[in-house]
Amino acid sequence: MSKARIAVLVSGGGTNLQALIDAQNRGKLRSGELALVVSNNPDAFAVMRAKYAGIPGEVINKKELGQEAFEEKLIERLEEEKIDIIVLAGFMCILSEKFTSRFPGRIVNVHPALIPSFCGKGYYGLKVHEEALKYGVKVTGATVHFVNEVPDGGRIIMQKAVNVEEGDTPETLQRRVMEQAEWQILPEAVEMLSKQICENNG
Ligand code: GAR
């Protein structure tokens, strides 16, 4: 049975992309193959991670192109590469309805909180953990969900809780949420979806 073709969209450091690469190398991601990495940001280290892993990595510069041309170019590349699953892994752009409606049930995102807490427009990266600490929650975590036209609003696929500890800073909390939740549930959810797609196609 042929594997689902996966594209990963990134903007920064790419530790979640690395978790997917490691899962593929260890055979935990086996129903899908990482076929393309696209960054909106030319300085993203994630593109280097793709290159080191032998995965085609490219930049489509959103700042230069603007939202519409960026999405058009992205769609063109995803279709050329016959991508089945689009994974947003630390991807800091909001995609339009025109884009999301083209790939229903095929786009997933990892968010560093337990949705519906600390999510939606303006909640990304470290900001999410700053807000969680400010609120004083004792438990936070990560969510993998489908992407639709509502930021962080698509159906939840998987979640994992992580304890907040005394003395946490946004940075220490971010790291713990990554280690204990994001890097585990993202590869698991991507394998699950890849398997479903392979079974439906095969
Ligand atoms: C991760 O914590 C990811 O969940 C979050 O940004 C970080 C990126 O890390 N994404 C969002 O906030 C998207 N709304 P990475 O580049 O090392 O994977």
Which secondary-structure class do the elements indicate? alpha/beta
Helix content: 40-55%
Categorize the overall geometry: globular
CATH class: Alpha Beta
Number of helices: 7
Number of strands: 7
Measure the end-to-end span: 6 Å
What is the CATH architecture annotation?
3-Layer(aba) Sandwich
CATH topology: Rossmann fold
Domain unit count:
1
- Integer average pLDDT: 97
Subunit organisation of the chains: single chain
What is the CA-atom radius of gyration, in angstroms? 16 Å
Output the helix-strand order: EHEHEHHEHEHEEH
Low-confidence blocks of residues: none
Q: Largest sheet, if any?
A: 7 strands, mixed
What ligand species are in this complex?
A: glycinamide ribonucleotide
Order of the strands making up the biggest sheet? 3-2-1-4-5-6-7
What this model shows, in words?
This protein has 202 residues and is of the alpha/beta class. Strand 1 (4-10), helix 1 (15-25) and strand 2 (32-39) form a beta-alpha-beta unit. It has helices at residues 15-25, 45-52, 62-65, 67-80, 97-100, 126-135, 170-201; strands spanning 4-10, 32-39, 57-59, 85-88, 107-111, 139-146, 156-163. The chain is 41% helix and 21% strand. It has a single domain (4-201), classed as 3-Layer(aba) Sandwich (Rossmann fold). Glycinamide ribonucleotide is lined by residues 12-16, 46, 89-90, 110-112, 124-125, 128, 178, 182.
How would you summarize what this structure contains?
The protein has helices spanning 15-25, 45-52, 62-65, 67-80, 97-100, 126-135, 170-201; strands spanning 4-10, 32-39, 57-59, 85-88, 107-111, 139-146, 156-163.
